[in-house]
Amino acid sequence: MPIQTAATPPHTITVSLFPPAQNSQENRQICPGDSTIVFGNYVSVAGAFQQISPNANGCDSTHTITVSLFPPAQNSQENRLICPGDSTLVFGNYVSVAGAFQQISPNTNGCDSTHTITVSLFPPAQNSQENRQICPGDSTLVFGNYVSAAGAFQQTIANTNGCDSTHTITVSLFPPAQNSQENRQICPGDSTLVFGNYVSVAGAFQQISPNTNGCDSTTP
Length: 220
Prior knowledge:
By secondary structure, the chain is mainly beta.
């Protein structure tokens, strides 16, 4: 009769799966020209960047950082013309010289935009001069008023650009006219020619005539 041996009991290995690793996603927006640190490196361009790392169970999970760029900030420009000697308010300060002045400020996305104000000057206003000579005792109309004394009189007016120019009228007086005197004696009944007329009586006779400057002189 054969000898029977005991059967080897079976060894069972049961395999189970850890829960799937949970991948993660992160979105970032940056301004053009700025950068953000992604997995230890500074990134300034748009793109999707991934890093694989083990979770608590030792299974690989992927973390994705998607970087996108805000639209470029819209810079703005402003031109101003001012008269020489005038000024304009630029970013809180009065400016009287030509130049380009800039201010950087954040837009709604927090990205920097630049506003430039360019200041330029009108050509200098051309001042004008006028000289007048008058006879003593006469007068001349100066800026709406009659003037009989020597002097320099000015009026400021706006030119086509709105800038002030000055017109100066200088009034001077001719030297006083030199009056002349002549004495004559005649015999009673005689006569003498005085200013085109024969005179036979005593008296003082005068004639007013202009001198070389046009001013009146008297010959008695």
